[in-house]
Amino acid sequence: MGGISEGFSEAVGQTPLIRLRALSELTGCDILGKAEFMNPGGSVKDRAALGILQEAEASGELRPGGTVVEGTAGNTGIGLAHLCNARGYRCLIVIPETQSAEKIGLLRSLGAEVRTVPAVPYSDPANYVRLSGRIAAEIPGAVWANQFDNLANRRAHFGSTGPEIWEQCEGTLDAWVAATGTGGTYAGVALFLKERRKDVRCVLADPHGSALYSWATGGDLSAEGRSITEGIGNSRVTANLVDAPIDDAVRIDDREALRTIYELLWREGLFMGGSVGINVAAAVETARRLGPGHRIVTVLCDSGDRYRSSLYDRDWLQGRGLRQPEPDAPVLF
Ligand code: PMP
User: Is-contact 96 128, C-beta < 8 A?
Assistant: First the structure.
């Protein structure tokens, strides 16, 4: 690391691996978070966005002045919007209207053309991902990023996030824990780590309302409940996830995820988004299952700044039957 980065694209990656001190002390394990919120576009999805664009450029599918179209919960769109500006493309984003106002507003500020659509299941042709594919097919010279099923996504993590974690840990780690949206981060890193060391335990974290926990533990895709977290969970197994190694799975509820991000803020000074709550709580559960003395790595996907009007707003939480955690309340862990 160090030296001069050639523009936005070269500034993606090489993020710190942060020891979460309080949780490490509590569990007797080394719990480490890959600080993906420090990417130039503010999330783990900068890596996937860059990998997808680079492969589309290399194949000749994406040409100067072309358009990049994507259906996204926000962060991939933000990464793509930055990269399209930096590399000379138009960017069109389809996003469910349920995603945070901060992310939708930011996409517009970055100059992307944003179409908000009702949040409907993947089985519905009006689903944001399926709609984005149809829009891309109708625009001459447009490329559909297709992050869920385009393996360029996980290749980006296999080629960067995985090797960085391995090097930062100097090959000493016991478990990799992450929630999945597209599955790109989880699968890319899991495949890389398993190639280096077969016994690195790969643990899929999942929120309620997603079918992946039941799929990973019992083989059937069934979901129960719902979650206020954004960008993670799925009702189907994407191409990026389909053959990823999974040794264990952990399901985390919103109360625990919420408590976790507030604990990270108060104890570690880290202001994090909701998926980080699922990841870190699942890392703590993995530490419990493994016992003291293990090193567990997870992802700090994006910053709390993207959720100030939701996860960090007392009234918003109350409207969803959740109480804002208070600093002097008993510690959950
Ligand atoms: N957390 C957040 C906040 C995200 O936006 C995403 C991407 N949808 C993820 C986690 C999951 O990443 P991936 O798509 O690589 O599974």
Answer: yes
The pairing of beta strand 90-96 with beta strand 67-71: parallel
Which structural domain range is residue 213 located in? 7-39+161-318
| Residue nearest atom 5 of ligand 1, based on CA coordinates | 231
Site to probe by mutation for ligand 1, drawn from 76, 99, 182, 246 as the one with most ligand atoms within 8 Å of Cβ, is 182
Measured from the Cα of 184, ligand 1's closest atom is 15
pLDDT in tens, 123-159: 999 999 999 999 999 999 999 999 999 999 999 999 9
Total domains in the fold of the chain: 2
Q: 180 lies in a domain?
A: yes
pTM of structure: 0.96
Structure tokens at 310: 């939701």
| 326/89 Cα distance (integer angstroms) | 45
Same domain, 99 and 202: no
The label of the residue with tokens 């944003």 reads: 114
Q: Active site includes 45?
A: yes
Cα–Cα distance, 33 to 59 (Å, whole number): 34
DSSP per-residue letters across 138-203: HSTTEEE--TTT-THHHHHIIIIIHHHHHHHTTT--SEEEEE-SSSHHHHHHHHHHHHH-TT-EEE
**227 contacts: CB under 8 Å, gap ≥ 6:** 207, 208, 209, 210, 233, 253, 254, 257, 274
Ligand 1 closest atom vs CA 229:
3
Using DSSP's 3-state secondary structure scheme, residue 8 falls into: helix
Residue 182 placed within a domain:
yes
Same domain, 105 and 187: no
List pLDDT tens digits, range 233-267: 999 999 999 999 999 999 999 999 999 999 999 99
CATH code for position 261: 3.40.50.1100
pLDDT of 330 above 60: no
